[in-house]
Design a protein that fits this description.
Blueprint (H helix, E strand, L loop, with lengths): L3 E3 L14 H15 L4 E7 L6 H6 L3 E8 L2 E9 L2
Parallel strand pairs: 1-2
Antiparallel strand pairs: 2-4, 3-4
Length: about 80
């Protein structure tokens, strides 16, 4: 991608999960990114059972790689906007 935007620091507290807030936040991020203009959003998730990888999959993101950064396993995701 020539113009990806990186979404960092997104989290929904455990008590507010499963209410649609995370999906709303991602939809809003995509709308902002398309106006920027950007052609993709990239983000990461912890590579663990409690990580958000499954959620990102359901929201249209595609796994692009796995790394260990400073001892923490991560999964990289991307969602194309156009």
């Amino acid at each position: 991608m020539k113009r990806p935007l990186y979404l960092t620091g997104m989290a929904v507290s455990v008590t507010h999960q499963r209410q649609g807030l995370g999906r709303l936040a991602l939809d809003d991020a995509c709308a902002v990114a398309e106006k920027w203009p950007a052609d993709a959003i990239r983000l990461d998730a912890y590579d663990a059972e409690a990580g958000a990888g499954g959620f990102y999959d359901r929201c249209g993101f595609t796994e692009r790689g796995r790394v260990v950064y400073k001892g923490t396993p991560l999964v990289y995701y991307e969602r194309l906007l156009r």
